[in-house]
Amino acid sequence: MSRASDDKMPAGTTAGTPQVLLAHHLKQLKLPTVLREYEKLARECARNGIDHTRYLLRLIELELIDRERRTVKRRIRAARFPAVKSLDTFDFTAIPSLNKMLVLELARCEYILRRENIIALGNSGTGKTHVALALGLAACQKGFTVAFTTAAALVNQLMEARDEKRLLKMQRDLAAVKLLVVDELSYVPLSPTGAELLFETFSQRYERGSTIVTSNLPFEDWTQVLGSERLTGALLDRLTHHVSILTMNGDSYRLKQSAHRRRAAGAEQNQAAPAD
Description:
The chain is of the alpha/beta class. The protein folds into 2 domains: 3-77, no CATH class; 80-256, P-loop containing nucleotide triphosphate hydrolases (Rossmann fold, 3-Layer(aba) Sandwich), CATH 3.40.50.300. It is 57% helix and 9% strand. The protein has helices spanning 3-8, 18-28, 32-47, 52-79, 100-106, 110-113, 128-141, 151-163, 167-176, 192-205, 223-226, 229-239, 253-272, and strands spanning 117-121, 146-150, 179-183, 210-215, 243-247. The chain has a 5-stranded parallel β-sheet with strand order 2-3-4-1-5. Helix 10 (192-205) links the parallel strand 3 (179-183) and strand 4. Helix 8 (151-163) crosses helix 10 (192-205). The protein is globular, with a radius of gyration of 27 Å. The N and C termini lie far apart (96 Å).
């Protein structure tokens, strides 16, 4: 081959073993799973008489599966969940008022495609945050972008953004998320400015994105938080236009778990105590 032909070839293709070059190219193409698996899979396919087309198909399928797994992990990190929880670990029998079939249907995330909302209402400790986290996790796994926050934290961030003249950017970012989870809209009253900013956030998402809100207050008491009947009415009008409401009243789920742990610890101590 002439020197002129060599000069036209990409750097690194005329020297080194095929394995070294292949590793280099796969890294350049960002195919880490292919790089990790191609030799082992090649031996398996040779042993089982699988042709090269099916070998390549299996190899690319492994890359796609692993890429989706990594993408889901990135979505979960970006959502900023305080904890990762799923419906598999939720005890539906502890909250009889909760419609289990509705929750499982919502976990399919079709409501996000329809840009509908979810509101979970119930007294403290009944698992509202757990369900909201689980639905957020399901959305990440289905390919949707998610952001999790508490109502108080969201209002504080909005007010800081306003003071630092970056409110419009934050509002655009919030509006772009497919699912916004706002936890703990509860007894702490918001300032008039904070209530207005929260209303704007929900209003900008109306029929553009889905929102999950959890609260231990019935709707008629939301004025205690927002401070204005007019604002509360307008906010509820938007949130509840297309909504699934999860009723989660009952004994505290956390207190039940705590009492169960105490009973179990007491039983262990009794068993360990020496007989008189």
